[in-house]
Amino acid sequence: MIHHFIVITPSLVLATRLQRMGHAVYLVVGVDSRPNNTAADPKQALDYGTVMYQQQILQRTVMVHRALLMGSNVLIADIDAVWLSDPFIELHKHHHAHNVLAPVDGYNDQWICGCLVYLRNSQRTVRAWEQVVTHHQGIVLRGMQTGSLSHR
Asked: Are 83 and 10 in contact (CB under 8 A)?
């Protein structure tokens, strides 16, 4: 059973509603909130495949790293994912035996899908997630410099 969780959202309405219910919420107001920057449009920050989206997701990546450093196990779950069966059955079966549990992406069986990731706190997991943070920061930095996300 999940006892503590943090919701990361750009929606002030959702953040306020969840806070009133007693939940921890990390509000992403605008990734780049400099004045006169039209790219700081909150809707654009949600458009998958944009630099703004990756900046927002990088905040989640860093927050997960902090939670691992504090000794927590982490479950990342996207709220827009649809499951044809209960994914928690597999999580309960295997969460003690593996440091990372995640489904493979439907487009490429070599990539994990970030829609549901369980990270068991261990030194190996923390070291691996540090590499994820570094790689993700590089993607965002290159995207900010070039204005696009290329996979070169």
From this structure: no
